Amino acid sequence: MELHVIRKKLKKELDKGRYEHTKGVMYTAGCLAMAHGYSVEKAMLAGLLHDCAKCIPNDEKIALCEKNHILISQVEYHSPYLLHAKLGAYLAEQIYEVSDPEILHSIKVHTTGEPNMSLLDKIIYIADYIEPGRDKAPNLEQVRQLAFHDLNACMAEILRDTLIYLSSRGGSIDATTKMTYNFYKQYSIHSEN
Ligand code: DGI
Ligand code: FE
Ligand code: FE
Q1: Cα–Cα dist 171/174, whole Å
Q2: How many angstroms does the Cα of residue 111 sit away from the middle of ligand 2?
């Protein structure tokens, strides 16, 4: 499917704020690809589609996963918004006709991450967090700078701040998010880790 067709479709599927965020992630992913020697086109396509399932109502997310044999964990039943990553990868392939496994995988893991991520996985995970429309996270200035110098250290910072945020909120934390942090904390610029 051509890029402008995907954009038009997404504009209808997503609410205004989510579509703006999507464009921010698309361009930021493109810039990170330039900085780290990855295909700009592929990074932008992955960024464009990463949240394609985000605006589907939660009960529908669960129904769609069940119907298509996408496994739902206890934490995902408890926080169904987490499913937009897995479901997004599925829809990117089925609806938006993306067949590149690197792109599909980066969409699948963009919320929790996973240990030992590929270059594109990290580009999308990080672009999602630092795109210009984001303003709530702590240390954004430092994290943004790190993103263009050291992807692994940047992953460690984002995961650390995300886990602090999630435990302050008292919600359930996916085991994968913790495993991802445990993998990336070795690269942290903070000596206490
Ligand atoms: O879809 P976006 O909002 O653009 O970003 P995202 O897909 O990274 O989702 C971000 C939210 O997901 C953020 O508030 C942190 C949260 N999150 C990440 N890991 C976990 C998690 N939430 C829960 N409940 N458990 C996790 O392990
Ligand atoms: Fe997301
Ligand atoms: Fe996002």
Answers
A1: 10
A2: 6
Q: What is the pLDDT along the chain (193 residues), one digit of tens a residue?
A: 989 999 999 999 999 999 999 999 999 999 999 999 999 999 999 999 999 999 999 999 999 999 999 999 999 999 999 999 999 999 999 999 999 999 999 999 999 999 999 999 999 999 999 999 999 899 999 999 999 999 999 999 999 999 999 999 988 899 999 999 999 999 999 866 4
Q: Chain centroid to CA 138: how far?
A: 18
Name the token pair of 188: 């942290």
Token pair, residue 34, equals: 């330039």
Cα 130 to ligand 3 centre (Å): 10
- Residue 76 in contact with ligand 1 by CB distance below 6 A: no
pTM value surpassing 0.90: yes
DSSP track, 142-168 = HHHHHHTT-HHHHHHHHHHHHHHHHHH
User: Is-contact 152 117, C-beta < 8 A?
Assistant: no
Q: Going by C-beta distance under 8 Å and a sequence separation of 6 or more, which residues neighbour residue 116?
A: 183
111 Cβ below 6 A of ligand 1: yes
